[in-house]
Amino acid sequence: MTRLLVPLLAACLAVLTPLPGFAGPEGPTPDGGKVIVLFRTGTDVSQRDRIVRRAGALPRRHFSSVSATAVDLPSPALRTFLEQDPDVVAVIPDRPVQMHAKPGGKPGGGGSIQVVPAGVQRIGAAPGTLVWTGVGVGVAIVDTGLDFAHADLQPLGLACFTAYTACQDDNGHGTHVGGIVAARNNTRDVVGVAPDAVLHAVKVLDASGSGSDSTVMAGLDWVAQNAESLAIHVVNMSLGRPGTLDDNPALRAIVQALHAQGISVVVSAGNDQTTEVSQQVPATYPEVLAVASTTALTGSNSCRFLPGAIAKDTASWFTTDGVFDTATGSGVTISAPGEDQENVNRGCFIQTVGILSTRLGGGTTRMAGTSMSAPHVTGVVALMWEQALSGSATLAPEDARAAIRGRADRVDAAPLDSPTTSYSFDGEREGVLWAPGALN
Ligand SMILES: [Ca+2]
Ligand SMILES: [Ca+2]
Questions:
Q1: What positions carry a catalytic annotation?
Q2: Over 70: is that where the pLDDT of 70 sits?
Q3: Same structural domain for residues 344 and 422?
Q4: Ligand nearest to C-alpha 293
Q5: CA of residue 176 to ligand 1 center, whole Å
Q6: Which CATH number covers residue 46?
Q7: Which domain holds residue 62?
Q8: What's the rounded Cα separation, in Å, for the pair 204 and 56?
């Protein structure tokens, strides 16, 4: 993964090129035939089904937490029929959603010696340093699934959800994210932030790492219905799309329902450094903990135009950021490692060294992105939950946020400025996630 670096000298100004695979601000175009129909509150499933079919459309999925149904429109004209129904509030596009990571470096291999990843070390969660390990805390990984055969994730929670045909990961992203939260503390591969937490696969993204608002809503619906019986207290969503706070009121409503249930929803801020978190869904929702990316370690530097190496705790060149609004709860809650380090070569390109975690098929691999930042926070929330439960208490999502923000490391100093031309300081140095602080 490379990127042209900032020319600190005007003479070597270089053209910034977007990386393949990182969706631009507009993102993919919605499929016009796939929509989400929002109904008046209280319109039950049989009514919704009847209304959709009467209009000549096909219901794909009825949601439980909200009065909404995902629908296929065989012809665009049918949209008008639906909109005319007095029980229909709105018909909105079922917009595409993407995972927030790309491979960032060579596979890490597998093996007989357990590595403590740099991100886990940076946030103060290396094995043996904390009393809590996530025992008894369920975590929903809303992603591409989990690798049920991975030796370093055993045992996985058996209850799972898929918007496709199986809960098994067929991409690798969900398995990597899951390993950052809870790779086991044993003698192999890696170790996660909360190695004894119970991971549940909620597969809402396909083999290419893509889904849509309706697959995400279906996954969150399943979490809302099953959280109590499965002790799911934290949801990780390392995904999103460009959007606005109110462009899908039904998705927002499900997230609000989870928040009201006392579940912390942790979301990657996004991998588009040209946008703010307020332009990313679901990261912009005030109910979620949006997480931006920093480097865990100081990189190497062979570029003679750069005065020094890119230090640890620097804002990642790709991260979406945006100041936290204490009045609304919108904005980046905290930064956490989304890559090990950024090395700068002689051509002044940045080479991202990704986070080491579990790989689909076994062993380990590296990936980078805010997708990797969010699960560090998810793991810490799982640790905080175990601590709360040990005292017969619970942990309200806003209390989790306050503890994470209030006792972050290097507040007012980090994230350090990225030296890339596309970086602009968002006005707040919220600090880096610090597990020992959050745990008091
Ligand atoms: Ca391990
Ligand atoms: Ca910031």
A1: 143, 173, 371
A2: yes
A3: yes
A4: 2
A5: 13
A6: 3.30.70.80
A7: 34-94
A8: 27
